[in-house]
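2024-03-11 09:14:02 DEBUG pipeline.ingest accepted 1 chain
2024-03-11 09:14:02 DEBUG pipeline.ingest length=358
2024-03-11 09:14:03 DEBUG pipeline.predict start
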Amino acid sequence: MTWRAVEAGNPNRSNCPVPTPPHTFLLSLPPLPLVRGGRVRAHRAAAWWWSRGGDTPAAPRRDVPTVLLVHALTGSAQAGGPGGWWEPLIGPGRALDPAKHRIVCFNNLGSFYGSSAPGAPGFPRHRRARLTTPDLARAILQGLDALGVREVHLAAGGSLGGMIVLTLAALAPRRFQRLLPIATTAQTSAWVAGWNHVARCLLRADAGYPRHAARGLEVARQLAMLTYRAEPGLAEKHDARTIGAYLEHHGRKLHGRFTADCYESQLDAMDAHDLFRPLPGGRGPALRRIKAPALVVDVDSDQLFTPAQSVALARALRAGGARVARATIRSPHGHDAFLLEWRQLDRIVRRALRLPPA
């Protein structure tokens, strides 16, 4: 394994559990065969790490428990710090305290922020190399191996990140002590796959697809934003005169930071997600392999991954022998409440950290 720092704090090697600044770095990983054919060569992963002094990616300490965070569809490895997608939950004195836990996040395989992705050297070019959640999970397992992290105290993620968390625990049941899947499901529904199909159609209708599908990507994002939010939350800030400008703003933002083919790769992984079926090369439902205790969290106003799907997920995990607790985020904002309702999320994360281990 080799790693290259992109941004790094001073690696204080004292025994004092004071957190050092977060590290952002690149890992060179072994080639990765994909479930649907093809192989990622020159495989690399972008990663983010925040821990106590003396615990660095180059020299991880064995006595520091690891919290693995997995981002959603268009997120990045930067979970905490300024601009991090879970910034209010991560930091000294917060639910995820780098003085107490090593907090690690990898950029998803196929995403835009530094990991191997469509258009990058070594990534398959043919269309049958569509990604799956097992592909994204195996890339993370390779990253953990490269860092020497053999055991994960808690794995947490929302939406697509929650799908990957569940898949990780199915692929490596003994490695994960606790799970926190939020606003997610064991099996992608026809409803979600239908929205993703329309998003693909918008991308492919752009004359610049796949490399320069600017307007297609903007409109696909506008469509997604409407599914991520619920009407009561939108009505708090927008009306018929302002909603268009709000959607155009978010469309431009994504166009400025993502590409159409990376976006489509993450949609592919989401659509292929089905843990009621065996893992590639395995037997029996993949969910039955999960043994780690889980806190399964839904959002009461979620129109994409409904509370009923969380109920079904919890029931299936219990049927496989896992201990399951439940929690609900109450919010007018819909699916994206897992990125907005910080007080409720603080309590939920602290509760998940205290789950009795398997």
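2024-03-11 09:14:41 DEBUG pipeline.report Residues 191-270 form a domain with the Rna Polymerase Sigma Factor; Chain: A fold (CATH 1.10.1740.110).
2024-03-11 09:14:41 DEBUG pipeline.predict end
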